[in-house]
């Protein structure tokens, strides 16, 4: 039986690649997609989710969620993803419509209808998840697992204690920085999130040799992979590096096969009041075991990871020809 997952996202180039990865794996069954404001405003993330779902042939409900953080002004990243979120990817407009239900209700109702079966995967700011937890705290008991792409611990391994490094500020990763209050709610909810942060996702770089694997994938390569990765790689953040990391696909990879990613239990707290550290995921690998509240991803098994990604894209590409 395929693993069921609900993806809460803010497409975003790497979200687009993650959705393709999830849909291209027969071991996974995407049962719903929900959107949140993040990489670009909600109107664009939602339109992008609809367009991507239709382009990929995903028969999946799409629900619009929160357009603003819980307590702050929106923070977006058009310099990374372009003004509308998908860089140079140009897709036909979707003919399908939104569900008409708020993402929060979709999350709660979908998980409640199949307790213990749904992997909730958040690859954008955590606003929708925090609102869902406020409305239905039993969500923590009903999910099969909760995996988020967000945060960072600093790159020095479990001995690093509470250090961190980010991609939006010196100390904060984008998804957490965009709504740190929501992230604080999520990490304090009494479940055990799997934090797939920058220290892990920076190991998943789409280098030249990786991209050579995609050269015979027809429309998917021409219309999504190449224009998306080229735009992503030209951004100030990635253009001096050997290929941009495809952050969000790593969270999907954990659901697909946890052996692709090594994790370590830790205590994670989110800084919400620091003058220079807001959005920092303060990660203490040395905390007492009874205080651990997360599994933190530390090492990616890159070769099997890229094998799985390539296989998914190859499967998906055959449906687009």
UniProtKB/TrEMBL annotation:
The protein's name in its UniProt record: Nucleoside hydrolase
InterPro entries noted in UniProt: Inosine/uridine_hydrolase_dom, IUNH, Ribo_hydro-like
Cross-referenced SUPFAM superfamilies: Nucleoside hydrolase
Residue ranges of every copy of the Inosine/uridine-preferring nucleoside hydrolase domain listed in the record: 5-307
Superkingdom classification of source: Bacteria
An example Gene Ontology CC term for this record: cytosol
GO terms assigned for molecular function: purine nucleosidase activity
GO BP field: purine nucleoside catabolic process
Pfam families referenced in this protein's UniProt entry, alphabetically: IU_nuc_hydro (PF01156)
Keywords noted in UniProt: Glycosidase, Hydrolase
PANTHER family associated with the record: INOSINE-URIDINE PREFERRING NUCLEOSIDE HYDROLASE, URIDINE NUCLEOSIDASE
Gene3D superfamilies tied to this protein: Ribonucleoside hydrolase-like
């Amino acid at each position: 039986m395929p693993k069921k997952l609900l993806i809460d996202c803010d497409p975003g180039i790497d979200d687009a690649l993650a959705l393709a990865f999830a849909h291209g794996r027969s071991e996974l069954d995407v049962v719903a997609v929900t959107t949140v404001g993040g990489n670009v405003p909600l109107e664009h993330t939602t339109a992008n989710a609809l367009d991507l779902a239709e382009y990929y042939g995903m028969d999946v409900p799409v629900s619009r969620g929160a357009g603003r953080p819980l307590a702050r002004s929106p923070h977006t990243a058009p310099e990374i993803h372009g003004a509308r979120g998908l860089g140079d990817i140009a897709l036909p407009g979707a003919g399908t419509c939104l569900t008409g239900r708020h993402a929060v209700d979709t999350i709660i109702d979908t998980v409640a209808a199949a307790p213990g079966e749904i992997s909730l995967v958040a690859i954008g700011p955590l606003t929708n998840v925090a609102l869902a937890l406020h409305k239905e705290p039993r969500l923590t008991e009903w999910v099969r697992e909760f995996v988020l792409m967000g945060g960072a611990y600093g790159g020095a391994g479990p001995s690093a204690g509470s250090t961190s490094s980010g991609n939006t500020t010196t100390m904060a990763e984008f998804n957490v920085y965009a709504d740190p209050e929501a992230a604080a709610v999520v990490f304090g909810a009494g479940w055990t999130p799997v934090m797939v942060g920058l220290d892990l996702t920076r190991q998943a770089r789409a280098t030249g040799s990786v991209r050579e694997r995609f050269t015979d994938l027809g429309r998917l390569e021409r219309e999504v992979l190449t224009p998306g990765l080229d735009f992503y790689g030209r951004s100030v953040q990635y253009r001096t590096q050997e290929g941009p990391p495809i952050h969000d696909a790593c969270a999907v990879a954990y659901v697909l096969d946890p052996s692709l990613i090594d994790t370590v239990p830790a205590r994670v707290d989110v800084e919400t009041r620091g003058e220079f550290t807001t959005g920092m995921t303060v990660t203490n690998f040395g905390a007492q075991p009874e205080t651990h509240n997360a599994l933190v991803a530390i090492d990616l098994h890159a070769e099997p990871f890229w094998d799985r990604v390539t296989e998914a894209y190859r499967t998906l590409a055959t449906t687009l020809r």
